[in-house]
Amino acid sequence: MKKHIKLISALVTLAIIFLLVLLSIEFLGEYGWTVLVLIPFLIGFLPPFISGYQTDLSRKNCYLLSFYTLGGAILSLLVFALEGMICIVMASPILILLTRLYLEIFCMQLTLSFSDTLLLFFAPYRRVCSSK
Fold it and tell me: Residue 26 sits in which domain range?
């Protein structure tokens, strides 16, 4: 199991994402927030989190694992005809940026305490507010 933990973590994440998209479509009738907020969060967080329990991951491996999972999620949206090609092309930059943001927050959380992470995240806002 330790040998294939990266593949398992990516597949578990893809299964969760697929179920969330189906639930959003069937019960909520829309899936904008799910696709643009929740899915990038899960892709940036879950694969490195699951794999990190079994093996040590470098920052590069965290990035590769998350972006391979993002590619799998985009591919599954096309294969299962949940989304069209033009919509995926238009949403891809947002998905990539948000996945990277959530992955950065996750990587910071590994090396910093929670309060330090919040301080770094809100530091630009504090500077803007104190300049008045």
Answer: 2-130
